[in-house]
Amino acid sequence: MALLLGLASAALFGTGDFFGGMAAKRCSVLHVVAISHLIGLIGIGFAAVLIGNPINGPDLARGSIGGLAGLVGVALLYRLLSVGPMSVVAPLTALTSAAVPAIWGLAGGERFSSRSWLGIVLALVAIGLASSEIGNKGGASATPVTVRVVAESLLSGSGFGLFFIFLDSTSSSSTPWAIVAARTTTTTLLFLVAVVVTRTRIPELGRSSPDQQRSRQARQLFPTLTAAGWLLLAGAGIADTGANLTFLYATQVGELTLVSVLASLYPIMTVGLARIFIGEKMGPLRASALALAVVAAQLLSTG
User: Fold this and answer.
1) Rounded to whole angstroms, how far apart are CA atoms 190 and 72?
2) Vertex 29 angle, CA 100 and 231, to 5°
3) In the chain, which end has fewer C-beta atoms inside a 10 angstrom radius, N or C?
């Protein structure tokens, strides 16, 4: 069950990244993250009420702290992907997001068979191969790889990894309230930032009346999008929050190391959707990553 939930989490994470990336072509990254988190919060809030588990104060605190760590990871990742080189940033971030919780789990006493270890190693290689071609057009990158790029990529992945660790530390009896707390914290912070950003543009509005200024601020705070654009934002928010929920359930029935490695296979889903829907070519590295992921999943399921 942990294997299936971990793979489902990876599929949802990858789907959310694809939808988010497509939405970012229509509006700013801040709009994408803030609105998708708001949509995800609404969805997970309804789910939490329907599930009916009791609210646990310490788990809410863990969820909030973990959400902040994940937000740092997202913010750094988007910034790094905008300046590149993507072929370095993406694999470093993905591998670190798997390695940090894996190291934590092993330090906590998790143990695996030789077959499981081989599956974990192959999965890590698959993560690197799949994400190394994200955003890479096939030529050498003209953007230099600086110490800062490497350090921020590792920090971004660590943010995601810490989020996984905090989710794993919550009790199963309060699921999924920790995710509700995480999304509430990040959504509130993101919209505060968005309000500050829109207010800095007030001088550009000239001598408009206060009502006109507020109207224009509202249009800046919430972008004008087509129905397709809003569907992409909704898909990103629902998929990402669903990925967190399946990850949380997976850690409740399986080891954190195993689940975190499986969930970090998300780049394979992203590049697969890009191949299907927007015609991006799947190069030899991506094809190899897919094959390795299949083998790794088989080893882990029988290990």
Assistant:
1) 11
2) 100
3) N
Distances in Å between the Cα of 150 and the Cα atoms of 92, 99, 131, 268 are 8, 15, 15, 22
Nearest to 260 by CA among 96, 114, 107: 96
Spatial distance between the Cα atoms of 255 and 244, rounded to a whole number of angstroms: 16
Residues 6+ apart with CB under 8 A from 253: 1, 2, 5
Write b or e for each residue in 284-300: b if 16 or more Cβ atoms lie within 10 A of its Cβ, otherwise e: ebbeebbebbeebbebb
Give me the DSSP letters along 278-293: S-----HHHHHHHHHH
Of the candidates 298, 302, 296, the one whose C-alpha atom is nearest the C-alpha of residue 120 is 296
Structure-block tokens of residue 74? 């997202």
Q: What does the alpha-carbon distance between residue 95 and residue 79 come to, in Å, rounded to a whole number?
A: 18
10-residue mean pLDDT profile of the chain (303 residues): values are: 93 91 84 92 95 95 96 84 69 88 90 89 87 55 72 92 95 95 95 80 50 49 84 94 95 92 88 82 78 86 71
The overall average pLDDT reported for the chain is 84
**Measured distance CA(11)–CA(265) in Å, rounded:** 8
pTM: 0.85
C-alpha dihedral sign at 181, 187, 193, 196: negative
What is the pLDDT at residue 218? Answer: 44
